[in-house]
Amino acid sequence: MGKKVLLATVMCIFGASSLQAQGERYTVFEYEQVPALEGDFNGDGVKEYAWLYAAPTVDMGCVYEPCLGYIVFSNPRLKPIEVSNAIAGYLVNEGDLTGDGADEIGVLPMWFTSNYKFYHLFSYNPKTATFEALIEPLTVRLDMYLGDTWEQTLQNLVESVSFKPLTLLINHVETDSEGRPSWVRERITFRNK
């Protein structure tokens, strides 16, 4: 499917503190210093850029607050996407999974604790001019790969099978009754898309 993936790790926008993820350190004060994700996220034929604006905290006290991050866009007409529990994260250009000309955008928010994370997939709705969740969040584990790297894992989570009806193949982690996690592959068909 040739998805174009760029991992964007964004930490602590409101201060000089930084967190370490994937072996790289960032101290971010402006969007221009943050890796950007390129794509046509609203299907108008013009490329724009997306950034993950992480929750402004490195304090575990955020556990008891909303702790919201946002995906923001270079196109001011695109409303930000609210992301829960995102002290950092990875953005993925999933390509056009739905056949409407717009690239879907995925995000894997990172949090202080737990090996389990939730991958969110958003699609632009031109009728409401907002991004909406395309599927329920997919469960992943940081110590389980679909390939050799996190980039390959994120590339392999969602695949488009057909546009009419819209059918996706998804991969997610499930834990059995003995507590053993494994990857599960499912086909989802949307009757109303």
Describe the protein in words.
By secondary structure, the chain is mainly β. It has a domain at 20-146: Lipocalin, CATH 2.40.128. It has one helix and 14 strands, in the order E-E-E-E-E-E-E-E-E-E-E-H-E-E-E. The strands form four sheets. Strands 7, 8, 9, 10 and 11 form a five-stranded antiparallel sheet that branches. Strands 3-4-5-6 form a four-stranded antiparallel sheet, with no helix packed on it. The two termini are 20 Å apart. The relative contact order is 0.15. Mean pLDDT is 80; it is low at 1-33. InterPro entries: Integrin_alpha_N. This is VCBS repeat-containing protein. Residues 1-21 form the signal peptide. It comes from Thermonema lapsum.
CATH C-level label of one domain: Mainly Beta
Order of helices and strands: EEEEEEEEEEEHEEE
Nearest-integer average pLDDT: 80
Tally of strands: 14
State the major sheet: 5 strands, antiparallel
The helical percent reads under 10%
What is the architecture of one domain at the second tier of CATH? Beta Barrel
The name of the CATH topology of one domain is: Lipocalin
Q: Based on helices, strands and strand pairing, what is the structural class?
A: mainly beta
Instruction: Give the end-to-end Cα distance, rounded to a whole number of Å.
Output: 20 Å
Using only C-alpha atoms, the radius of gyration works out to 17 Å
